[in-house]
Amino acid sequence: MLQQTPVTRVIPHLEAWLTRWPTPADLAAVPPGEAVRAWATLGYPRRALWLHAAAVEITENHGGIVPQDVGVLLTLTGIGDYTARAVAAFAYGHRHPVVDTNTRRVIARCVAGQAEPAPPSRTRDLAAMNALLPADVRAAAVFNAGAMELGALVCTSARPRCADCPLAALCAWRAAGYPEYQGQKKTVQKKFAGSDRQVRGLILAELRSTRHPVTDAEIATLWPDPAQLGRALSGLLSDGLAVRVAAGSYSLPHE
């Protein structure tokens, strides 16, 4: 849930999710559409389908216990480097570099002297964090968490609180006089307003709001551009976030 989503938005959804489905087996026992429904407005709803698929895999292949080996975690649907290492480090206490957007920013500024990190690179980012990670397992977990918190609360993207930073005396960016970033920038996502993502969200919200199939006529009322509605609906069907239950009617996935 935390992937590309602020903690404050995640907490209420996480609490409700774990109350309803405290174990992978509990989640695996319901249709995937229920996971999409419970995902609500978190965004990037394919994550809900992936999480449900992972719960099924954990239940069927791992006795209902989330694996602790990074290599095994990476075989689960929807689990990438960040999530696999975060689970291994924070849930099981293993020593692994855990790199998120906030960690990358802290390293870029404090170590590399750059205002912002270069576009993500699995090899480079993990190597950079691993070089800083303490050898002690418990200290490594604290360091991982501390780097994330520092980036989230102090070394923020737009308004870094350098006067409050415990690493201020060590920061290469500060020592260099806060130079502007001149390197390659990652691709900026298009605005949400008016985008196909917004239209997909409107259709998905309509599907979540009812236990009955939603018709083409009902979908047509959600957005004024029929071509954009068609693209959005086709994308949802292709992604498995919606299913056609009859000619001209749709629902959340139920199998």
TrEMBL record:
Q: What are the entry keywords?
A: DNA damage, DNA repair, Glycosidase, Hydrolase, Iron, Iron-sulfur, Metal-binding
Q: Where are the transmembrane segments?
A: none
Cofactor section? [4Fe-4S] cluster
Under PROSITE patterns, the record lists: ENDONUCLEASE_III_1 (PS00764)
The cross-references to Pfam families, in alphabetical order and at most eight, read: HhH-GPD
Q: Provide the HhH-GPD domain boundaries.
A: 1-153
Q: Which superkingdom is the protein from?
A: Bacteria
Q: Which family does it belong to?
A: Belongs to the Nth/MutY family.
Stated name of the protein: A/G-specific adenine glycosylase
Question: What organism does the record attribute this protein to?
Answer: Cryobacterium glucosi
Ranked from the top, the taxonomy reads: Bacteria, Bacillati, Actinomycetota, Actinomycetes, Micrococcales
